[in-house]
Amino acid sequence: MKKLDRIDIGILNALQADARTTNAELAKAVHLSPTPCYNRVKAMEEMGLIRQQVTLLDPDLLGLHLNVFIHVTLERQVQGALQHFEATIAERPEVMECYLMTGDADYLLRVLVPDIKALEVFILNLTTTPGVANIRSSFALKQVRYKTALPLPEGGLVVGREA
């Protein structure tokens, strides 16, 4: 367990906004000298709080125009079927997100594909996955909000896993 203070929160918010921020820029933004700032970032990386740094690409410029949400219902929700489905989905690059759900469907997928033909191929392959009973798709007409930054309290918080 570690308490993150407002400086740690400032560092995390700055890195979420732009992971390419240099340590010198980051230190200046949170009013620290570079060495203590660097040490704080390293400590948060070692805690697993900072998992990775990524580059966000523009899907439209890359020709990925269809953003589709797919509800998948399995024939039986048993451990083996869940594991098999999840392993199959993990191999599909079109699947941007996959959640095990409560409610009517067992899984919710967010899939990015270039066009309707690519979606057809994806869905036909999905229907041949053992254990899949039902698939329902919904097209996103417009992305109203998309963010990757997690909401962090300004005053700090305690993080870690309890034993």
TrEMBL record:
Keyword DNA-binding in annotation: yes
Domain spans labelled HTH asnC-type: 4-65
Keywords: DNA-binding, Transcription, Transcription regulation
GO biological process: regulation of DNA-templated transcription; response to amino acid
InterPro entries: ArsR-like_HTH, AsnC-type_HTH_dom, Dimeric_a/b-barrel, Tscrpt_reg_AsnC-like, Tscrpt_reg_AsnC/Lrp_C, WH-like_DNA-bd_sf, WH_DNA-bd_sf
Cellular component GO terms held in the UniProt record: cytosol
SMART domains noted in UniProt: HTH_ASNC
PANTHER family in the cross-refs: LEUCINE-RESPONSIVE REGULATORY PROTEIN (PTHR30154), TRANSCRIPTIONAL REGULATOR AZLB (PTHR30154:SF34)
Name of the protein described by the UniProt record: Lrp/AsnC family transcriptional regulator
Originating species: Comamonas terrigena
Organism lineage string: Bacteria, Pseudomonadati, Pseudomonadota, Betaproteobacteria, Burkholderiales
